[in-house]
Structure to design on (195 residues):
């Protein structure tokens, strides 16, 4: 019962946010209660004191499962973090694609971007011990680039009207993530012999 009511509250919040777009960050507990057909007091007493708590809960629900699964796999030569994320992370993301579309296309969650960056740079760091040196860039910069690029691909996927099912998108994700930016551009416009 509690989980069902909690889901109603979260769904009401994201439904309101989807309609409010640029004003999504102004949604109140009272508005959520009305949308969820609950009283404000029930939400405040039993679930969330404010929308920040609600968003923290959504962050945890989306992200904790992914990170727990990823942590089960220590970095090993021959196992790409891209493939690992495609197998472990994409199904969870697809499950939450409606909420993520709202997060990426409205002002409902101004902390999402930083939250993801902070969480995933620690997971990806062990895979980059030599890459930053080889490229001559700071490791912190490289971590940020990888997380931002991954978020960009995921955002492009979940913000489509009808996101591609996870089983077929896994191949697209792996293909795009395994390319350099230069290889994604038509050859006649790409950088040639740049070192």
């Amino acid at each position: 019962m509690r989980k069902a009511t909690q889901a109603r509250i979260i769904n009401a919040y994201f439904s309101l946010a989807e309609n409010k777009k640029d004003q999504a960050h102004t949604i109140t507990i009272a508005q959520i209660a009305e949308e969820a057909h609950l009283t404000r007091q029930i939400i405040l007493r039993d679930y969330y004191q404010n929308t920040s708590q609600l968003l923290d809960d959504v962050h945890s629900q989306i992200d904790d499962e992914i990170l727990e699964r990823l942590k089960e796999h220590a970095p090993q030569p021959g196992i790409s973090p891209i493939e690992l994320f495609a197998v472990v992370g994409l199904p969870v993301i697809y499950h939450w694609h409606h909420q993520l579309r709202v997060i990426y296309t409205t002002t409902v969650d101004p902390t999402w971007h930083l939250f993801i960056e902070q969480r995933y740079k620690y997971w990806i760091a062990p895979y980059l011990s030599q890459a930053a040196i080889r490229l001559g860039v700071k490791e912190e910069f490289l971590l940020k680039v990888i997380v931002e690029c991954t978020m960009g691909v995921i955002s492009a996927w979940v913000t489509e009207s009808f996101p591609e099912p996870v089983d077929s998108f896994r191949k697209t994700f792996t293909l795009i993530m395994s390319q350099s930016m230069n290889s994604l551009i038509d050859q006649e416009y790409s950088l040639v012999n740049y070192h």
Remarks:
- The chain has ten helices and no strands.
- Residues 1-49 form one domain.
- The chain has two domains: 1-49, 58-189.
- The mean pLDDT is 91.
